[in-house]
Design goal:
The protein has about 150 residues and is α+β, with helices and mostly antiparallel strands. Helix content is about 15%, strand content about 35%. The protein contains two helices and ten strands. Strand 4 and strand 5 form a beta hairpin. The longest helix has 18 residues. The radius of gyration is 24 Å and the shape is globular. About 20% of the residues are buried.
Length: about 150
Amino acid sequence: MIKKQGALAFALLALTACSSNLQLPAESTSSTVVGKLDKTLYLRGDFTLWDAEPQYRMEETQPGIYITKAKFMSPGKVYEFKIADEQWSEGYNCGYQTEGQLTLGQPLIADCNTVYNYFSFKPSKKGWYEIRLDYRNPRVPKVVIVKF
């Protein structure tokens, strides 16, 4: 009986060792599905009178990454904005999900079905800033601002 249990344990151990070389399904090794927007988005804020202006059009610079630039000339002023299409359409009206105060280089999760949750940013220096919408994961879009 002990020999049978030992042989069974050895066989299970051998099978386990062999199975550790199995490859995971492609689905689990490739977890990023890049989102693609089918509408043009704009940076819209108090500095544009909330209009969709061509100079603030979000451009796709790599798959799922949309970028525009803005010149903020009043250090210490709070700038308020959203990323949205021309019609403020549902699914294309991106504001903050839980917090709206952007800090340089720190992404915040966006909610693209919000009406009032606009982002805010208070630059410490005047100059050009890049606003990025990371839409590689459409379930969790993120917004980040960087100075350049």
